[in-house]
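Please produce the structure of this protein holding arginine.
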Amino acid sequence: PMEEDNPGHVKYQLSKLLKVSLDTVAPELNLEPLVTICPAKFPGDYQCNNAMSAWKLIKGTRPEFRSPNAVGQAIKDNVPASEMIESCTVAGAGFVNIFLSSKWVAQSIQKMLTKGIKIWAPKLQVTTAVVDFSSPNIAKEMHVGHLRSTIIGDTLARMLEFSNVKVLRRNHVGDWGTQFGMLIEYLFDEFPNWEDLGEQAIGDLQAFYKSSKQRFDDDPVFKERAQKAVVLLQGGEDKYRKAWTKICEISRREFNQVYQRLAVDLEEKGESFYNPYISEVLASLSNQGLIEDSEGARVIFIEGKNIPLIVVKSDGGFNYASTDLSALWYRLNEEKADWIIYVTDVGQSLHFDMFFSAAKRAGWLPAGENLYPKTSHVGFGLVLGDDGKRFRTRSSEVVRLVDLLDEAKTRSKAALVERGKATEWTAEELEQTAEAVGYGAVKYADLKNNRLTNYTFNFDQMLSDKGNTAVYLLYAHARICSIIRKSGKDIEELKKTGIIVLDHADERVLGLHLLQFAEIVEDACTNLLPNTLCEYLYNLSENFTRFYTNCQVVGSAEETSRLLLSEATAVVMRKCFFLLGITPVYKI
Ligand code: ARG
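Below is the modeled complex.
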C-alpha cells in the first residue's frame, strides 16, 4: 500500500478535504483552504475561514450566495465524507467548525506508537538549510549572547533535521581580522617558545586578549608591529600563519568544551574560510555595477537606507560584510542551500538587513518575500541579571559559559542529594541526572521566551520544580514512565494488541493535543520560534496532569487504552526534549 502522505498533520489533511469542497463550491476562484485550530469562542476542533473572502469575490456573479453564511453552508455540504471528520457546523459569517472523529484521533496516535514519531515529521519546502549559529570570536570572550545563539541555533537545526531537511550546522567563528596582528605579536613577545607550547600553557585566552590590547593601546612601537603582522598574516607568511593557527586552536579547545557539555554539534567554517572568495565575489558585484566609491571606501548603496554597506574599507581591507557576502555566495552556489538562517543578537539586525538587500540587488535572492532561496536573521534579546542590567558576574566581568554550566549542575545535584538520591542512586545516575536537569534548565529558560525579548537569568527560577521549567517537565515525563513501569504491563505488547479509546473529555483533549505536534513543529520552523514548541510541551504536560487526575489508569476498565495514551504522551514529550536539546530522565 502507498505510504500515507503527512499522516499526523491534521491541518494538512483537513486542507486536502476542504480544497475539494472549495473547488466544488467555487471552482472559478481556485481558493487555498484557510484552516486553523478552532478559536475558543466557537465550538469545534478546527475551523475553515474561507467563506467571507470567497463571498466578497463571487457575490456579483453568484446571486445564490446571499451571504457569507450561505457560502459557509455550501463549503460544509461539499466536504467529502472522511473518517477523520465527525461533523461540521456553520456559525456567524460562514465559519465552518469542524469536529474531528475521536476514533480517527485515537487511530492516528496508535499509528504513531507503532510506526514511530517520525511519521509525524512535518514537510517543509526546503531541501538544504544552513544554520549559522554560536559563532564566537577567537580569543574574545564567549559570552551569554553566544550561549543564546548556540541554544537557539541548535534547536532550530534539530527541528529542521526532524523535518527531513538537510542541515549544515555552521560555526562562523570570528577567526580573521585585524585583532590577530596584536595577538600574534604578543604571543611572540611573551612566549618566545610558542611553537612548542602545549595548548594549555598560554592559559586564559581572554586575559591574553586583554593584555595584548593593553600593550597595543599603550605602546606605539608594538602597535606598528601588530599592524604589520596583519599584513604578513594575510599575505600568508609562514611564521604568522602558524602563530594564527596556534591561537585559533586554543580558542577552539575552549569552545568545544562548551559544545560538548551542551551536546551541540557544529562544523567550524570561520571567517577565514571565505577569505579566498572575497575578491572574486566583489569583482562580480562590481561588474554588475553595484559597488561604488564613497569617501575612499568601496560600498553598496541600499534603497531606503541612508548609509551604504561598506565592503572594502578605505585602507583596502575586507570586513565583516565582505566576508558575509562571500559566505552567502558560497552557501548558495557551492552548498546549494535554499534557506540560510543566521542566529545572532538583534543588535546585528541592520547588518543582516543590509547585506540581504545587497544580495537581492545582485539577483542572488528573489526579490519578493518568503521566496526560496531565502535568508533569515534570527535575532534575540539580551540576557539580564537580577538587577535588570546586562548579565555580569559580581565583579562585573563577562560571565564565563563553563562556570555557568558548572553552577547549574552543582545546584541541581545539591537538590537531588537533598532529596536523598545520593544513597538511592548510583554515583553515575546522580551525575547524569544532575547534568540533564542542570543543562536542560539553562536551555529551557532561554528557549521558552520569545527570542526577541530580553530575559532574566535566575538559577532559582530555572531550577524550580514548579511552573514552566525544564525541571518540572523532566519530572512530569519521568512520572509518566514510572506509571507505565509500575503497571507491570508490557507496553510493547500493548502497542500491538491494545486499542486507544478517547471517551472521557480529558482523554480527548490530551489526544487532540498530541496530534497537533506536527503542526506545532512546522510553525516553530517556519516562524523560527522555538518558544512555540516549549509552550506546546508545557500544555501537553498540563493536559496529561488533568487526564491523570480525572481518569484512573492502572486497575481501571480502560487501563490498556490509558496506558497507551500515557505512553504516547511520553513519546511526544521525549521528542520535544530532543528537539530542544534536553536529555530526558527516567527516574526522579
Ligand atoms: N562572530 C559574530 C559575533 O560574535 C557572529 C557571527 C554571525 N554569523 C555571521 N555570518 N555573521 O557577533
